[in-house]
Amino acid sequence: MWKYFSSKRIVKALEEGVLYSRQNYPFEDIQRRSDALNPGILNAFDADSLSAETHEMVCVFNQPAFIEPQRGWIICNPFHLVDNCLRNSSEAPRPAIRNYVKTRLFQRSKVTTERAVISLRDIGEQNYYHALIDLIGGRLRLAEHCNLDPNMPLVVGKAVYQKSFFQDILRKSELRKRRLIIQGDDFILCEKVYFFETDRTNKKSLEYLVKLLNVPDSNQKSNRRVFLTRSPHAGRNIKNINVIEEVCRKFQFEIVDTSMMSLDGQIELFSGARYVIGIHGAGLTNIIFRKNGALTLLEIFPPVAYQTQGVGPPPHYFWMACALGFEYDAIFGQETSGNRTAPNYRNSFEVDANLLSSRIESMLN
Predict the structure, then answer these.
(1) What domains does the chain contain, in order, with CATH numbers?
(2) How distant is the alpha carbon of residue 254 from its chain centre?
(3) Own/partner long-range contacts of 28-36 (Cβ < 8 Å, ≥24 apart)
(4) 3-state secondary structure of 17
(5) Among 42, 282, 312, 352, which residue's beta carbon has the most beta carbons within 10 A?
(6) How far, rounded to the nearest angstrom, does the alpha carbon of residue 364 sit from its chain's CA centroid?
(7) Where does the pLDDT of residue 358 fall: very low under 50, low under 70, confident under 90, or very high at 90 and above?
(8) Residue 209: how many CB atoms within 10 A of its CB?
(9) C-alpha span between 90 and 191 (Å, rounded)
């Protein structure tokens, strides 16, 4: 229903409020690096995702607007929903109009009023990868790039604020000195709001994050080998993990689950990691902490059959490896024998131990 309340006047105001806009293609050398990939992996990636135009933008809306609490949608007074204020907003559930109207008319006690804010709200904000790359490396970097007032408060979702890794970020960085508005169940009404689009393929985001966290240069002589596993409770785990871990140990890989580690521990571990094998997931974001050192990444994806709507596997860490000059390879798992459930990207799956062994030999040589 939101589209019926769309306002041409507000659309014009939003267009006039663009402070910075940049279009880019991810990594000019991506084709050269793609040539070195295993052909099966290159074919599995969606061609458009490897070469599509990317975009980042900083916007300001200079009139009263609400930030709704569930996902951080911006609603310009009175009923205009800002369609590019969230990542992949076209796929994000819209807020309930009834709740918005009810709060505005009858529950003003559930509305917090602010003068001007910078919104760090987004869908997926609780995810380690999205919080580091989109919110901190992306939005906070762009706010500094546009010289936005550092005294302006940052709106942060309560769920991500409570994450231990976010508390570690605050402790380790200048971000702890900023005023944060922790948005829980209340709407925020502001006279001015800044919001962003972010480009995940921008190396500047990675560099900004590493600098913010005061990550030291890696010991280039370090030769640690890390296998990044996932808890069964996290989904997308390997069914025959005992066999796979035995293969990894044969090649002297440490078995690690970063979900149980502090941010300091993850920085220390991956700063010294020369070879990394990992199931696709947010923990692979830690390769950014291999600062000014060589790294080879072997990513393990769920079976191709689990991909939906013809879209290939997410190339987040292929992009990241390209940006940082790391070597990259990937393998796909197999559906669990006897599995009667519909293919799902979070289902457990099996990995061919012989295939993994041969790929490890290749990466080490």
Answers:
(1) 2-27+55-212 (no CATH), 224-364 (3.40.50)
(2) 25
(3) 29/322, 30/322, 33/322, 33/328, 36/327
(4) coil
(5) 282
(6) 29
(7) very high
(8) 22
(9) 26
CB 300 within 8 A of CB 280: yes
Give the C-alpha separation, 70 to 148, whole Å: 26
Distances (CA, A) of 224 to 273, 290, 365: 5, 11, 15
Give the H/E segment covering residue 131: none
CA angle 241, 246, 251 (to 5 degrees): 125
* Cα of 30 vs its chain's centroid, Å: 20
For residue 248, what pLDDT band results from cuts at 50, 70 and 90? very high
Three-class secondary structure of residue 179 per DSSP: coil
For the whole model, what pTM was predicted?
0.91
Structural contact between residues 350 and 333, judged by C-beta atoms closer than 8 angstroms: yes
Question: Pairing mode, if any, of strands 111-119 and 187-197?
Answer: parallel
Give the C-alpha separation, 119 to 77, whole Å: 17
DSSP class per residue in 202-223: -HHHHHHHHHHTTPPPP-TT--
pLDDT, tens digit, for every residue of 295-342? 999 999 988 655 654 556 788 898 899 889 899 999 989 887 655 555
What is d(CA 122, CA 91) in angstroms, rounded to the nearest whole number? 12
Helices (H), the chain: 8-16, 30-35, 39-44, 47-51, 97-106, 128-130, 141-145, 158-161, 164-172, 203-212, 241-250, 263-271, 316-324, 353-364
pLDDT digits (tens, 9 = 90+) for 14-72: 999 999 999 876 554 455 455 555 666 666 676 666 666 788 999 999 999 999 999 99
